[in-house]
């Protein structure tokens, strides 16, 4: 018998909330970081109607290796090779310089699998929704504007993946005068 949500999905949620427990977002209210990864998984489930469970799980884990002490080995052992492969695809190499990481996000977007592209689209949608209402602490207007411009370059390389998510992103780019 299949029951929803699955035990594996719940374990994923618990693991992500534990690993990100001390991190906060950069918004003035210092939202717990885990809210972002929950948003990304929820966008995929509710707004994009994705039922591919490893994708929804990888969405919960998409920043766990990049931003906590978790390793790909941990993720593979706990959640399997499929979920781990997706997390790998969406993880930036933090040892690289920021400019190079930003350049690689644009270049790698085009080469990603369809399932990884879904996660990246939802990730950017959540970050941009947040940026529409908040300026992260310490950011100038110019930096916020540059993020929208860069995010559009990433999204342009993710197109043809999910019409609904792309429409919602395009509404934001339109509002910012980028489309
Ligand atoms: N909009 C927004 N972003 C926040 C907030 N707190 C943290 N972030 C993260 O900040 C990143 C953008 O900041 P940058 O200065 O451009 O990049 P950096 O953190 O990698 O140095 C986003 O990462 P990214 O690489 O675009 O994506 P990802 O790391 O989420 O996968 C986003 O996840 C917040 O309150 N609002
Ligand atoms: Mn993210």
Helix content: 55-70%
| β-strand amount | under 5%
Summed up, the helix count is: 9
- What does the largest sheet look like? none
State Rg: 16 Å
Order of helices and strands: HHHHHHHHH
User: Which regions have little confidence, pLDDT < 50, spanning 5+ residues?
Assistant: none
Say which molecules are bound, naming each kind only once.
guanosine-5',3'-tetraphosphate, manganese (II) ion
Shape descriptor: globular
What is the rounded distance between the termini?
47 Å
Overall average residue pLDDT: 97
Category from helices, strands and their pairing: mainly alpha
Give a count of the beta strands, DSSP E runs of length 2 or more: 0
Family: Belongs to the MESH1 family.
Catalytic activity: guanosine 3',5'-bis(diphosphate) + H2O = GDP + diphosphate + H(+)
Protein name: Guanosine-3',5'-bis(diphosphate) 3'-pyrophosphohydrolase MESH1
Function: ppGpp hydrolyzing enzyme involved in starvation response.
Explain what the structure shows.
With 179 residues, the protein is mostly helical. The chain is built from 9 helices and no strands. Helix 2 packs antiparallel against helix 3 and helix 7 runs parallel beside helix 9. The chain is globular. The chain starts with 6 loop residues before the first helix and ends with a helix. The mean pLDDT is 97. The site of guanosine-5',3'-tetraphosphate has 12 residues, from helix 7. Manganese (II) ion binds next to loops.
């Amino acid at each position: 018998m299949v029951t929803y949500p699955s035990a594996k999905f719940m374990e994923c949620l618990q693991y992500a909330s534990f690993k990100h427990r001390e991190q906060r977002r950069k918004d003035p209210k210092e939202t717990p970081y885990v809210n972002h990864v929950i948003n990304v998984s929820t966008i995929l489930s509710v707004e994009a109607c994705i039922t591919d469970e490893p994708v929804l799980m990888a969405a919960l884990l998409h920043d766990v290796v990049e931003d906590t002490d978790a390793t790909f080995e941990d993720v593979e052992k706990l959640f399997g090779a499929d979920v781990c492969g997706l997390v790998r695809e969406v993880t930036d190499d933090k040892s690289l310089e920021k400019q190079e990481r930003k350049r690689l996000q644009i270049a790698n977007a085009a080469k990603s699998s369809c399932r990884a592209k879904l996660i990246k689209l939802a990730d950017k949608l959540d970050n941009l929704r947040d940026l529409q209402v908040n300026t992260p602490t310490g950011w100038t207007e110019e930096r916020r504007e540059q993020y929208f411009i860069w995010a559009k370059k990433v999204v342009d390389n993710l197109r043809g993946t999910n019409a609904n998510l792309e429409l919602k992103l395009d509404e934001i780019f339109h509002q910012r005068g980028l489309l």
